Amino acid sequence: PRGARLPLTPQSRGGGRVSRPPGVPRSLPRQEEAQAIDQELFTDYKFSVDQLMELAGLSCATAIAKAYPPSSFTTSQPTVLVVCGPGNNGGDGLVCARHLKMFGYEPTVYYPKRPNKPLFEGLTTQCQKMDIPFLSEFPAEAALIDELYGLVVDAIFGFSFKGAVREPFGSILSTLERITAPIASIDIPSGWDVEKGKADGLQPDMLISLTAPKKAAMHFTGRYHFLGGRFVPAALQEKYALNLPPYPETDCVLQLT
Amino acid sequence: CNVPFSRQAFPLPSLPRKQPTVLVVCGPAQNGAIGLVCARHLRIFDYEPTIFYPKRSPDPLYRDFTTQCEKMDIPFLSYLPTEVQLINDAYNAVVDAVLGAEAEAGEGREPCAAILATLKHVRIPIVSLDVPSGWDVEAGSSGGISPDVLVSLSAPKQCARCFLGRQHFVAGRFLPYDVQKKFELNPPDYPGTECVVALRAPR
After folding, report:
1. Residue of B45, B63, B193 with shortest CB distance to A103
2. For chain A, which domains are there?
3. N or C of chain B: less Cβ packing under 10 Å?
4. What angle do CA B58, A58, A194 make, to 5 degrees?
5. Is residue B3 a part of any domain in this protein?
6. What residue in A sits closest to B2 (Cα-Cα)?
């Protein structure tokens, strides 16, 4: 059956576990492997999407708080624009926004395409009840974003993204490519090919890889790369040879660079 | 609701036993389910939890929590030794997730009563989730268990005033502001991105 494919290096041919210095993945999961890991978590381990999304979103907010503490903002308040896409990456963004609010930031959400599902409706309500504003339209100019926000969270597309970017996200990404404020991308810089990246696409300052860094992370050139989503059982890590470095103590994020 | 009290109350390097074993005793309702989630995170944090969960809830959510623990190779005891020395010798601490604030006197008599009778006599530290099991949620204990650490969920309950153990944590950072105001909870400031805060300095 299709599953983890061990690399054909001499050590692993015998089926033993490859021993490698921590922090040096043998290979970063490809899109289908990342999807397979997710499937196992839901089907075999019986995690709910809610559970993992909550932990993922919390990791993102925590990583942001470590790299961009409120005191570091040049805007008068620690304002953050969270741009949420139409799928799970957008859901991660909604959770992240809520935790950023708890951590003392002032997030604003732009969520143009909302799935008709209780999970996303619930997350939206939670944000609204915490007085997190939802913009009715996206700021038209990059300069306006730079003036209003000290940080932008890119929660548009994740590791399932394939094919062409549909509106309104094409225009949004074009605008984001022109801002000078730092961008923190959740899991995959939006618009990038999940394995090959996108040289002329978004260049975020921060990447928060969830579960494990994907192949696209090799093309990341920003300042901060964090790992989040500290919920992968040891057995799954071994099966997919993720070789993740250890998280510090009980932290839910690990700074990779 | 993740309960990462572990680093603060019982950091891994400080544990007396060679293996970082922890016994998590889970009751039949929500408090027990929280114990299951706690056990899973303890496993992720490299502790070695063992669960005792004699009366399993039929709630599908809680059954999934059980599956997650089983798939993470967390052992489930089939019975709790009545000989307390066995517990003292095998584990560094016990997490009491038996009964919470919703428990009424007389609810879940057995096996909870027997479990609590045993826990009363353990010599290793007990960490109680929300309410020390068996205590009256308002009046407190009358000869019940004496936990070392209390983790109040959302906000301390009335009976927390009777708590005499070493550390009292609140895990309530997820409460929206309007709920906090409505119930006049007046929570303390949480440091950094922590989701628990100690209410009293450790003795």
Report:
1. B193
2. 37-255 (3.40.50.10260)
3. C
4. 100
5. no
6. A55
Element (H, E) at A186: strand A183-186
Distance CA B99, CA B133 (A): 5
Range of B33's domain? Answer: 17-199
ipTM exceeds 0.95, yes or no? no
Going along chain B, which residue ranges are E strands?
Answer: 21-26, 48-52, 93-97, 126-129, 149-153, 167-171, 197-198
Chain B residue closest in CA terms to A232: B44
pLDDT in tens, B78-129: 999 989 999 999 999 999 999 988 765 545 567 888 899 999 999 999 999 9
Residue B162 covered by a domain: yes
Q: What is the CATH number of the domain that holds B157?
A: 3.40.50.10260
Which chain B positions have a beta carbon within 8 Å of A46's beta carbon? Answer: 63-64, 67-68, 71
Counting the structural domains of chain B, the total is 1
pTM, entire model: 0.88
Asked if A230 is an interface residue toward chain B (Cβ–Cβ < 8 A), one would say: yes
Does residue B149 fall inside a structural domain?
A: yes
Q: Suggest the residue from A37, A44, A46, A211 to mutate for an interface test with chain B (most B CBs closer than 10 A).
A: A46
Mutate to test the interface with A, among B48, B68, B196 (most CBs of A within 10 A): B68
